[in-house]
Design brief:
The protein is α+β, with helices and mostly antiparallel strands and 261 residues long. It has 2 domains: 70 residues, Orthogonal Bundle (Arc Repressor Mutant, subunit A), CATH 1.10.10.10; 166 residues, 2-Layer Sandwich (Beta-Lactamase), CATH 3.30.450. A 6-stranded antiparallel β-sheet has the order 6-5-4-9-8-7, with helices on both faces. It has a 3-stranded antiparallel β-sheet with strand order 1-3-2. Helix 5 runs antiparallel to helix 9. The protein starts with 13 loop residues before the first helix and ends in a 9-residue tail after the last helix. The structure holds a DNA duplex (20 and 20 nucleotides).
DNA sequence: CCCGCAATGACTCAGTCCAC
DNA sequence: GTGGACTGAGTCATTGCGGG
C-alpha cells in the first residue's frame, strides 16, 4: 500500500476537502474548539469555516457545544460503529490462524465467552494432526477447565469468580481438573502475571492447550486464541508465536498496545 | 469539441447580537 | 467599547448540461 503523506488527500470538490480539514482539526483536540482556533489552524476564513461547520452541525457530524465552540459529533460514532461491526474477530483471525497452524501443525482454536462457557467459533486444523479429540465449531467448554476460559475468568472481578464457582460447582472432568476455588484463584493469578493461560489435561486427559487473549479497540478481551495438542507434543516455543498471533489479530481489531488491558 | 446558460459553491463585506 | 459569533447580500468562479 502507498504511504499516506501528511498532506490532506485532494478531492474534486473543494468544500469536501475543507470539511475534512475541519474534522481533522477537531479530531486533534480533546476539548471543544473555538471557531477562531478552527479557522486559524485550518487556514480557512472564519465565515467559510462557520458555514461548513454549520452544515456539519445540522447533519450531526459536529456538535456545537455552545455558541462558537465545536467538537466531533455523534454521527461519526454511529458510522464508526458500522465499520467496526464489519471487523468481526473471526474475519480478522482466519488467515493468521492458518499461518499459526502451518507453523505448529497443531489445532488452532478461536473461541469466545458465552455466559459460563467458552464457545469455539473457528478452528484451523488438518486431518492428519493426530488429535484424538477435536471439538466441533460451536462446541462448548467450561471456563475453569479450558485455557481460553481461564483468560476470561482472569479478567473478572474476584466477586464474579466466586459467583461463577458457586453457580457451576467447579465440576471436574478428570483427576487433573481444578475443582476448588482456592486453586482456581491461584491459577488465575498465574494467568494474569504471565499474560497467557494453560490447560494441562484438565478438560481431556492426553490433551493440553495454551491460550492468549484477543482484545478489541477498547482493550476489552473479546476472544481467545489457543493451540491444542496431544499432551506430549505441545511445545513451549510455540507460546511466543501464539502470543504474537493473538496480538496481531488484536491490532487488526484496532487494539493498540498500551491503550488498555 | 466548443460555447452559452443555469445552478451551485466559495468568498468577502457589512451589519447585528451578545458577552465581557 | 471591543472582540467574536453569526447572518444576509452581492460577486465571482466552477460545474453540469444541452445545442450546434
Amino acid at each position: 500500500m502507498k504511504m499516506e503523506t501528511l498532506e490532506p488527500a485532494k478531492t474534486s470538490i473543494q468544500v469536501i476537502e475543507r470539511m475534512v480539514a475541519l474534522l481533522d482539526v477537531l479530531a486533534s483536540y480533546s476539548d471543544p474548539v473555538s471557531l477562531k482556533e478552527l479557522s486559524k489552524v485550518s487556514g480557512l476564513h472564519p465565515s467559510t469555516a462557520h458555514r461548513i461547520l454549520n452544515d456539519m452541525v445540522v447533519t450531526r457530524f459536529v456538535d456545537r457545544v455552545e455558541p462558537g465552540t465545536y467538537r466531533l459529533g455523534m454521527r461519526l460514532l454511529e458510522l464508526g460503529n458500522v465499520v467496526k461491526s464489519r471487523l468481526s474477530v473471526r474475519e480478522a483471525a482466519v488467515d493468521l490462524m492458518r499461518a499459526l497452524h502451518n507453523k505448529t501443525r497443531q489445532t488452532v482454536n478461536l473461541s469466545v465467552r458465552q455466559g459460563d462457557e467458552i464457545v469455539y467459533i473457528d478452528r484451523a486444523f488438518s486431518e492428519r494432526s493426530g488429535m484424538q479429540v477435536v471439538r466441533a465449531i460451536g462446541g462448548r467448554g467450561p471456563l475453569h477447565l479450558t485455557s481460553t476460559g481461564k483468560l476470561f475468568l482472569s479478567v473478572d472481578e474476584p466477586k464474579a469468580i466466586r459467583a461463577y464457582a458457586t453457580r457451576t460447582g467447579l465440576a471436574g472432568h478428570n483427576k487433573n481438573s481444578i475443582t476448588d476455588l482456592a486453586r482456581l484463584e491461584r491459577e488465575l493469578t498465574l494467568v494474569r502475571s504471565r499474560g497467557y493461560a494453560r490447560d494441562n489435561e484438565e478438560l481431556e486427559l492426553g490433551v493440553r492447550c495454551m491460550a492468549a487473549g484477543i482484545h478489541d479497540d477498547s482493550g476489552k478481551l473479546v476472544a481467545g486464541l489457543s493451540i491444542s495438542a496431544p499432551a506430549d507434543r505441545l511445545q513451549d516455543e510455540w507460546l511466543e508465536d501464539l502470543v504474537n498471533t493473538a496480538a496481531q489479530i488484536s491490532a487488526t481489531l484496532g487494539h493498540r498496545v498500551g491503550a488498555g488491558v
